[in-house]
Design goal:
There is one protein chain. The chain is α/β, with parallel strands linked by helices and about 230 residues long. About 40% of the residues lie in helices and about 20% in strands. It has eight helices and seven strands. The protein has a seven-stranded mixed β-sheet with strand order 3-2-1-4-6-5-7, with helices on both faces. Helix 5 packs parallel to helix 8.
Amino acid sequence: MKLSILMPVYNEEERIADALKQALAVEYPCEIELVVVDDGSRDGTSEVLGRVDDARLRVITHQRNAGKGAAIKTAVANADGEYMVILDADLEYDPQDIPTLLAPVLDGRATVVYGNRTFGSHSAYSFWYVMGNKGVTMAANVLFNSYIGDLETCFKLMPIELYRSLDIRSRGFGMEAEVTGKLLRRRIRPFEVPISYRARGREEGKKITWRDGVEALWILGRERTRRRPATRTR
């Protein structure tokens, strides 16, 4: 199996070198590629990316910032792997956890795996950030009669053809809710594994806001009211 690690990047000059180094240093149990989409960065991100020499790395550039969902769409269109996982470039997630996400797939227990964050004082950006995450996840559980622990997690691992079939339209952070809503509408319940997490603060460049939470709730409601596809996937 080949795993495509998809990394959307926007104005991460200070962190992108470390993010790439950490991702490429992991001992993966399968072949990997790292597909980075520079989503219209206006700082020195592109210069840093140009200095990295690794055959597993491919860089694609958006001339203008289009949002996380749009960057992932570009990465998926250019990926060669059978499976994919998203890894943000902000160092909040540890790529050392990716083999843990792969384990249930490789031993045949799961097809879709989510990394479940356990928020604590060392890993939470703020009280309202955590409550927003939990509120959106609870809304999904109520709407789809499911019981997942972390809808907004970046670590979503699945077959790349499955992701393509979801036809994700959200260009920004709303893609997280759209992916999960469409999976749950198909009755695909993600297998969850615990992961480490350290949220950065607003002063460190955190981009998500309360507006993204409101958008996520709207997207979940929209997906719940749509007719479920005739083909069931497990």
